């Protein structure tokens, strides 16, 4: 019985992957991400230059020796970008995970419990929604100390304010699912709320969670860039945002050093555009109403 | 209409509670982190030749002036009481200038920049998005999806740097920053307005372009979804003209976009910290950044008191616009 079930599952997974890879947008988005992943993980092997080495001549335009040139401090921009992609993706994945976990917990509890629990949780969500995220980020990061805060804290700070929209969406979906017959049947069978949540409700939200995860990854990557530009992340950790920060504080755009901000920015745009493509593609594949269009 | 009145009262009641809770949070948060405005001021002075006794006397005077020696709930109540009479206090980081004067000086610049950028991008983006959604499968749709995805993912600060580099440094046709020529005094002369407009173009574009992309993407999906609804198919089958059909689709799929615009306009008061810093533009973003950086409690409180109020007000107005333009929701209240 158990093996039979597993077989059905794996069949489905292959089928889903097949559907996804038949989608043009998914292929483009996945291609870009794949390329950037290769760059991030194979880059240090293929291009063994230390991104923190300041012994190169400063502010060199792209050349054969330094494909993306060097910055004002004499660091190699290509090596920085390679490191930056990896760290930016890491922040993105962490932010996506944290946001989904907080939002899902609040949304599920509010939606299933209902009543006073729902009221309190949703009022709380509304209050968090109003607090401007930049303010909270500045206060938390300066409290911990900017130089002492790692990427994990940056991701946590970003998640603290972004989970609200997701929690509300989850709650709304639960509210409509709650009235369906299969939930009544599970209740009549005497299943606990937790069992209903995990066995009946969560599978219905799976695609939505997946799409949101990809989108919040994007929010995380770009949010980190915003915090970096404001000078709120440690300068010893290289991310795509930190590169833009260095370009901003050295005013590279005023000195015509285009390679120090155009290239990291272009890679950042590619990264977020590919994530958006993947999210839309998943939506199209799993939402038949959109597929028809 | 009585349920509607009850609904409004409930709404306003919750609004006021949310406002005060948010105010209290904004009041406590800056006080919860180490450092206060007086320490910042004294740290700035102690490098000079002032004697230590004088310094500590001065510190005590400042602590009393900013009421930092009182418990926070007393401070909070005093702040609320005074703000009702229009007194938001004195900024700690601005040489004794009042918070109200500071906000009055910075707010117009932010409004002039952000309100038009938000509204213009809304019109352009939604128009392109609606046509794209309506002409499904056409080359126009494919092109606008591409434009939408790329535009919407351009970080506005990166665009700002690029625009400065291209137009101010390489081509030298537009100024790289600030809101007007510093040799001129703000006035309504032609010379000043011309200078202001020249300085306005780059920051405006850097905010406009990414915003257009976002609206294109969301509006295209909304319009396509509306196109699938039975009333459009029926109208199409009885031969309603294309132009009229487009109007139906546009009107009926607009609702979430109106809400989105309203909520964005609510946040306008916060300014755009990064854009303003890159362009050295004297708006609310720069003021807020300075307030937070120097722990200027009165300035932080003053800005957030107004900011939170506009955000909540925008949300409330959006709720009513919903009721006004969508008859389906209106009917829902009547039966409720």
Explain how this protein is built.
- The complex is a heterodimer of chains A (293) and B (336).
- Chain A has 293 residues and is mostly helical.
- Chain A has helices spanning 2-21, 24-46, 77-113, 115-130, 133-144, 151-178, 181-188, 193-229, 240-249, 259-286, 288-291.
- In chain A, helix 3 packs across helix 9, helix 4 crosses helix 6 (151-178) and helix 5 (133-144) crosses helix 6.
- The longest helix of chain A has 37 residues, at 77-113.
- The model of chain A is unreliable at 1-10 (pLDDT under 50).
- Chain B is an all-alpha fold and 336 residues long.
- Chain B is globular, with a radius of gyration of 25 Å.
- The interface between A and B is large, with 41 and 49 residues.
CATH architecture of chain A: Orthogonal Bundle
Biggest chain contact: A-B, 41 and 49 residues
CATH topology of one domain in chain B: MetI-like fold
Q: Give me the secondary-structure category of chain A.
A: mainly alpha
- Could you give a short account of the major beta sheet of chain A? none
How far from one another are the termini of chain B? Answer: 11 Å
CATH architecture of one domain in chain B: Orthogonal Bundle
Determine Rg of chain A (CA atoms, Å).
23 Å
Q: How are helices and strands ordered from N to C of chain A? A: HHHHHHHHHHH
Task: For this entry, give a set of tags.
heterodimer, A: 293 residues, mainly alpha, MetI-like fold, 76% helix, globular, disordered N terminus, B: 336 residues, 77% helix
Quick structural overview:
Chain A is mainly alpha-helical and 293 residues long. Chain A has helices at residues 2-21, 24-46, 77-113, 115-130, 133-144, 151-178, 181-188, 193-229, 240-249, 259-286, 288-291.
